[in-house]
User: Fold this.
Amino acid sequence: MADAVCTGSHRIDEYLRGLRDLDLLRFIACGSVDDGKSTLIGRLLYESHLIFEDELATLKVDSARLGTQGGAPDLALLVDGLTAEREQGITIDVAYRFFATDHRKFIVADAPGHEQYVRNMVTGASTADLAIILVDARKGVLTQTRRHSYIVAMLGIRHVVLAVNKLDMVGYSAEVFDRISRDYRTFAKAIGLTKITCVPTSARYGDNIVTLSANTPWYQGPPLMRVLETVEVDTTAAAGQPFRMPVQMVNRPDSGFRGLCGLVVGGTIHCGDQVCVLPSGHISRIAAVVGWDGNKPGAVAGQSVTIVLADDMDVGRGDVLCAVDAPAIVADQFDATLIWMGEERLLPGRPYRIKIGTRVVDATVTELRHRIDVDKMIRVPATHLELNQIGVCALRADRKVVFDPYLDNRDTGGFIVIDRITNNTVGAGLVRNALAPSRNLHWQALDVDKSARARLNGQRPCVVWLTGLPAAGKSTIANLLEKRLHALGLHTYLLDGDNVRHGLNRDLGFTDAERVENIRRVAEVAALMVDAGLIVLAAFISPFRADRDIARQTVSAGEFCEVFVDTSPAAAEQRDPKGLYRKARRGELLNFTGIDSPYEPPTDPDVHIDTSRQSPEEAVDAIVSWLRVHALLD
Amino acid sequence: MRALSHLDTLEAESIHILRESVAESERPVLLYSIGKDSSVLLHLARKAFHPARLPFQLLHVDTTWKFREMISFRDRTVDELGLTLLVHQNPECLAQNINPFTHGSAVHTDMWKTQGLKQALDKYGFTLAFCGARRDEERSRAKERIFSVRSPQHQWDPRRQRPELWKLYNARTAPDESIRVFPISNWTELDVWIYIYRERIPIVPLYFAAPRPVVRRSGTLIVVDDDRMPLEPDTKPELLRVRFRTLGCYPLTGAIESTADSVPEIIAEMLVTTTSERQGRLIDTDSSGSMERKKLEGYF
Assistant:
C-alpha cells in the first residue's frame, strides 16, 4: 500500500478516497499449525506490509526463543496470541487479524484446528464470507479437512479456497496438487459446497500467495490474494434477499418522534414501501429512513438505520420488519441444528434462554432427534449433547418467534443458547424449519375450568414441592402435612418420589437426563391435579434448580410453594432409613445424589426447614402458616 | 445502491453493538479517554441514538498527568455537545501523590488507571462500560471478545469468555459482574484515521505536528507539558516539531518527529511508517506479554 502514497496533497486526497471506498471481506482460516495455517496468516499480513519494524524485532527475539524455523523469523509467531498459548505452542481460542490491500479490507478469523475445534470453528465461521481450508501437500485430504469442511458447509459459507500448502515439500508437483484437488472436490460436492477454488501454495516461501510463482508454471489459476480480493461478499448478496430488520430499540426523544432502530440483515427498502411487522402481522409503510445528516431515500442490508413507519402502532424490541410479499416464519416450535458449547451438557426438557435476532425467549429442547458424528458423517442416537457435540432437535419456545431457515438468512436463522443460571452462551443453533402444522398440538379449551372445580371443592389448589437430599425427611414431613390438611377437610394428593418411580416413571433411571424427565413428568401430573382442584404435595429430591423452576412455571403464579428440607449431608447419611447411602458408599448404587451426583440447593425457597433445629411437626406448622399468609388456606 | 464500503460496514457494526448494549444493560457508561479512538466512539454513539440524546454518561478516569490540551479538549467537547461527564481521580493517589517519576510507570498506571477505573465503576454501579480499544492494537487483544465479562473484582479470565456468534451479543451477567464492550474492536488504526477524515471528527491538536519542548528519556521523546517534570540541572528541553500517535499521561507518552499537521498528512505518514502505534507507550514495553497481565488485573 505504501508505494501508492504520493506527497502532493490532492494526490493524497484522491488516494484517501480510494481507501475510503474499499469493501470488506471476512474469512476464516481452517487447519492446524502443522498445515502452516499460522504461517499463512503471518504471510498475508507480512505481504500487505502490516508488520511493523518493532513487531518484527519482537518476532526475531521470539523466534530465537520459541521458533521452529532454526532461528529464522517464524511468521507463525506473529499470530499466536496470548503468552500462555505461545509458550505451550497451542492456540486455544479464535483470534481476529486485520489486513488490507489496494482492493479490499480483510478480517481473518484464526480458529484453532485441534482442541475444541467445533466451538471455535463455528464461532469464527459464523461471520465469515469465505473459508480457506489448508491441507498439507504431503498428507492430502484428512479427517480434519473433512471436519472443517463439514462445519463450513453447515454454517452456510458460500466460498471455499483449498490451499494445498507446503508444496515445496513435494517438489512443486502438479500431480500431487491435481490429485488432492480432485479428491477434495469430490468430497466437497457431496456435502453441498459448490464454489471451490484450489490454489497450490507454500506459505513459508510465499508461492502463489500474492503473485503467481515461477515454481508452479503449470498452475493457471489466480494467486490466493487475488481470490480473496474478488469473491462477492455476503452483504452484497444479502441486498438481493427479502427485506428483514429485527427491531433493536425504539428511539423516542419526544412525543413527536418514534424511530425503530435496527440493522438491516436482508434486502433493500425504499421510502413508501410496505412492510409487515412480525409476529403481530400488522402492515404499514416506510415513512422515513432517518440519517445523521438528513433523511435517506432507503436502506440496504448491512446498514444500521432508524426507520419511521407511517402508522402509529405497537412495535418494540424483538419484532422484525419484513417484506410484505416474503415475510419470515412465525412459530413457537421449530427444528434446529444445535452446536453445544457449554461445559455442562445439554439436557432435553430443561429450559434455556435463546436469543434470535433481537428477541430473547425461554425455550426447551423437546426432542433430540439425533447427534451428528462429524468424523464419520453419520447420525447417532443421543439423549444429551456434550461440549463440542452437534445434534438435530425440536425446540419449543414460550412465545412465538420470528425466523427464517438458516440457509436462507444467517442473521434471522441463527440463534444462541444462554444458560439461565450462569448466563453463559452455551450453544449455537441453526433453524432448519418450523415444525409441520400437523405436529402443532392445539390446547382444547374446556368450559368447566380450574376455578369452577376449585369452587366446588371449597379450596384453592396449589403445589407444595419439597426438595432436599435423600433421607432429609421430605416424605415424613409430606405425610404429616397431608394428614393435617386432610383433617381440615381439604382434598389433597401426595406424589412421592419412590412411589412414582414404581409406575408412571418406571422406565426412568438416575442419569441427569432421566432425572430431568422424571421431574418434568411429575410437574405435569401435579399441574393436572391442580387443574382438577387438588392441593398437591410433591416430595422429590429434584436436585436441579432449573427443573424445580420448570415445575413452578407449569402451574400459575401463586400456586407453587417450594419447601427446602435442609439437612447436612452427614445427618442425612446417618439417618438413612432405607439404607441407600450405605449401598451407594459400597458402589452398589450409581448417580446417588449427594455422593456422586450433584444437588443444587434452592437459592430462595418459599419455606426453609432446618432439620437440625425443627421437628417434622414444626416443619408442617411452618408450611401451613406460609399457605395461610399466601391466602391458599383459610 | 452500490456495495457498502468497509467503513460503512464497520460503522454499522459498531452502531449495532452500541444499541444492543443499551437495550440489554441497566446502567451503561462510556469510558472517555479523550484520544482519537474515544472521539470516534463518541461520534458513533451520537449517530446510533440520533436524534435522541446519548442514553448514557461519559466517564473519564483522570490521572492528573494528562496533557493540558487533552483536558481542555475534553471540557470543550462536553460543553459543545451538551454531554454529561463524570471525572474520577483515585483519592488514594491524590493523597499519596502517586506519579510516574517517583513510583515508576507500572505503579502509576496500576494505581491511577486500573484501580481508579474499578473505584469509579463500583462507585456509580455501572453494569456495562464502553471502551474504544481495538483488536489490532496488541497481540493479546486479538482474542478479546466484543462483550467481555468481568468478575466482581473486574478481572478478565480468558478461559471464561463467551463465544460470540453472528451478530448476537450476550450482555447478561450475575448481579456483581459487569461487562466491558468494545464497539470498535474490528477497526484498525488506519480505519480510525480514515473515518476521522471522512466524518470530519474533531481530535485533540496534539495529534498534529507543532513545535513542542522535548526531552529524551530512554530513547523516547517526551514533551515537557508542565513544571512537574523533574529535569537534570544541565538538561534543557529542545524545541522539536513533533506529534503523537496515541495519547496518555504526558511523562509516559512518546512523541514522534513529524511535519504532518493535517489528517491526510497523518494518514500518508502512517502508510509509510515502520513502527506500530503502541511503541510510543512506555507502559506496554515493560516485558513481552505485559498488556495481557494488565488485562488480567482489570485494566482494559
